[in-house]
Amino acid sequence: VQLVESGGGLVQAGGSLRLSCAASGSIFRINAMGWYRRAPGKQRELVAVITSGGSTRYADSVKNRFTISRDNAKNTVYLQMNSLKAEDTAVYYCTVEYEYWGQGTQVTVSS
């Protein structure tokens, strides 16, 4: 299974970014798709996860600012990030079933 992420970049505080992650390869049925992040000097943390049925879970720090969604037909998961803060700066990793991981995409929020 290969995961290709896109959408990271540099944005000012208060701005928005949208991350995408497309999964390909030997995929029969994907249940959980999600995003983690690792900030400099910190441990990796869950950002958001979504099941095939549409159930979602968010880290408290991103609730009401970030929205996770997915297109099951395209095996793609998205993360819409609004009202970005400097503390959201991190490398964001896509995951499928917590088993497969993307290469990471850098998100930098300038204050």
* Strand fraction: over 45%
- Helix proportion: under 10%
Oligomer: single chain
Main beta sheet strand tally, sense and closure: 7 strands, mixed
Shape: globular
Low-confidence stretches: none
Rg estimate, integer Å: 13 Å
Secondary-structure content class: mainly beta
Series of H and E elements:
EEEEEEEEEEE
Topology, number of strands? 11
Q: Would you tell me the overall average pLDDT?
A: 95
Distance between the termini: 37 Å
Q: Helix count, per DSSP?
A: 0
Briefly summarize what is shown:
With 111 residues, the protein is mainly beta. It has strands at residues 2-6, 9-12, 17-24, 33-38, 45-50, 56-58, 66-71, 76-81, 90-96, 100-101, 105-110.
Task: Provide an overview of this structure.
- This protein is mainly β and 111 residues long.
- 0% of the residues lie in helices and 53% in strands.
- The chain is built from no helices and eleven strands.
- Strands 2, 4, 5, 6, 9, 10 and 11 form a seven-stranded mixed β-sheet that branches.
- A hairpin with a 5-residue loop joins strand 5 and strand 6 (56-58).
- It is globular.
List its traits:
seven-stranded mixed β-sheet; 111 residues; mainly beta; 53% strand; globular; four-stranded antiparallel β-sheet
Helices and strands, with pairings:
Blueprint (H helix, E strand, L loop, with lengths): L1 E5 L2 E4 L4 E8 L8 E6 L6 E6 L5 E3 L7 E6 L4 E6 L8 E7 L3 E2 L3 E6 L1
Parallel strand pairs: 2-11
Antiparallel strand pairs: 1-3, 3-8, 4-5, 4-9, 5-6, 7-8, 9-10, 9-11
